[in-house]
Amino acid sequence: MDCFICGADSNAGNVPDAILVGCPNCGGYRITRTALECLKNHGFRLDTDVTRKWLAGQVGTGEIPLIDWDIAAKCARRA
Q1: d(CA 78, CA 26)
Q2: C-alpha distance from residue 52 to each of 1, 6, 33, 35 (Å)
Q3: Are the C-beta atoms of 65 and 46 separated by less than 8 Å?
Q4: Contact of 9 with 27, CB cutoff 8 Å
Q5: Phi then psi for 11, rounded to 5 degrees?
Q6: In a 3-state reduction of DSSP, which class is residue 29?
Q7: Tell me, what's the pLDDT at 67?
Q8: What does the angle CA 72 – CA 12 – CA 28 come to, to the nearest 5 degrees?
Q9: C-alpha angle 59/34/68, rounded to 5°?
């Protein structure tokens, strides 16, 4: 599976209401199915630089970062 942020070949698994992604470039994160659906329906994708900056800010929280629709909307750009 490809990373939703950078497109690199990544590991992925399903967790309740989200997809868990392990990317060699972006690191580990979760993204909700709602966020993915909204991005697709509105013709957007995650901006690599903006999303990676957001992920970097989540380090040290003790949880795997979760990209929901609110975060995805802030990190989106036209596909």
Answers
A1: 20
A2: 19, 9, 19, 16
A3: no
A4: no
A5: -85, 145
A6: strand
A7: 98
A8: 60
A9: 20
State residue 39's pLDDT score. Answer: 97
Global confidence as pTM? 0.94
- Quick one: pLDDT at residue 44? 97
Q: What is the mean pLDDT of the chain?
A: 96
| Euclidean distance between the first and the last CA atom of the chain, given in angstroms as a whole number | 19
Q: Which pLDDT does position 72 carry in this prediction?
A: 98
CB atoms within 10 A of CB 13: 11
Mean pLDDT computed over 40-69: 96
Q: Which two tokens stand for residue 16?
A: 């309740």
d(CA 27, CA 77): 21
Helix then strand count (H, E) for the chain reads 3, 6
